[in-house]
Design goal:
11 helices, alpha/beta, eight-stranded parallel beta sheet, pyridoxal phosphate
């Protein structure tokens, strides 16, 4: 394989994996290279959709002048059956996200243990122990928006003897009262609390959901980018090592171009939601 082909294969492989700031694991590369290389006519619809998303992510990263290897794709599977998640898993993807605790704890035990799960959105304090007990391979909580939840997460992680849990502070960048997330003016204080007072949590970055229709505007993206600058300055952290989770099915390409390192793609991979199945 020519050098350019190797670089392309490594990029294609990693945009679907789960650890954007760590070295690529060879087995992940081979799985996802197979996804990208397989003829589309032989793919099931969900596999073809995954391949299309990975390609679009790579192209958006290249337009932004950043490495596709720095962008994580979280396949958000709320309301979708385990059988459909298994198809995406069998295609080589390993990073999945859920929004509802009860649905999450029902699904996760039915799927392989090497999945790296993300919980996305507001996590109620009374659901923390349930979630962490049921999902030992929970890798990230994208949605800590107050000190109470952070403190409970820290306590439960410690009681279970787990390694530190990655968390992102959820920021309400749209100003919508219906949206969870801390006001941008409070993100530094909350980030400082997690960093300094929650030793069992690893502060990984910031996330936002955006507008009422779950899309985001350039202003939403800029707000989160500015929040990252403020947090990293206050905590003396490198911005390159502090993630931004922004962008979903309708706007993940624009989010990547604005600096997102973590995109949450659901319906574009799995198809329209069936909220009648919400638990």
């Amino acid at each position: 394989m020519e050098e350019g082909g190797i670089r392309k294969a490594r990029s294609d492989a990693y945009v679907g994996s789960q650890l954007s700031l760590l070295p690529i694991r060879p087995q992940t590369c081979s799985r996802l290279r197979a996804i990208m290389a397989a003829p589309a006519v032989e793919s099931r619809p969900v596999t073809a959709a995954l391949r299309s998303v990975l390609l679009r992510v790579r192209q958006a990263a290249e337009r932004a002048g950043t490495s596709p290897e720095r962008v994580r794709v979280v396949a958000v599977s709320k309301t979708k059956p385990v059988s459909l998640l298994r198809e995406v898993y069998d295609a080589g993807h390993r990073c999945f996200g859920e929004n509802y605790v009860q649905e999450f704890v029902d699904k996760a035990p039915q799927l392989p243990g090497d999945i790296e799960w993300h919980f996305i959105g507001h996590l109620q304090s009374n659901k923390v122990k349930i979630l962490l007990n049921a999902v030992p391979n929970l890798t990230m909580v994208e949605g800590v928006d107050n000190e109470k939840v952070a403190n409970i997460l820290d306590k439960v992680v410690s009681s279970l003897g787990r390694n530190p849990l990655n968390v992102m502070v959820q920021v309400n960048t749209s100003g919508e009262a219906s949206k969870s997330g801390i006001d941008p003016s409070g993100c530094v204080k909350l980030a400082e609390h997690i960093k300094l007072h929650c030793p069992n949590l690893a502060l990984s970055g910031l996330m936002t959901i955006g507008m009422p229709d779950y899309t985001s505007t350039p202003e939403n993206f800029r707000t989160l980018v500015n929040c990252r600058s403020q947090v990293c300055k206050a905590l003396e952290m490198s911005e390159d090592q502090f993630e931004l989770s922004m962008g979903m099915s309708g706007d993940f390409e624009q989010a990547i171009e604005a600096g997102s390192t973590n995109v949450r793609v659901g319906s574009t991979i799995f198809g329209p939601r069936d909220y009648a199945k919400k638990k």
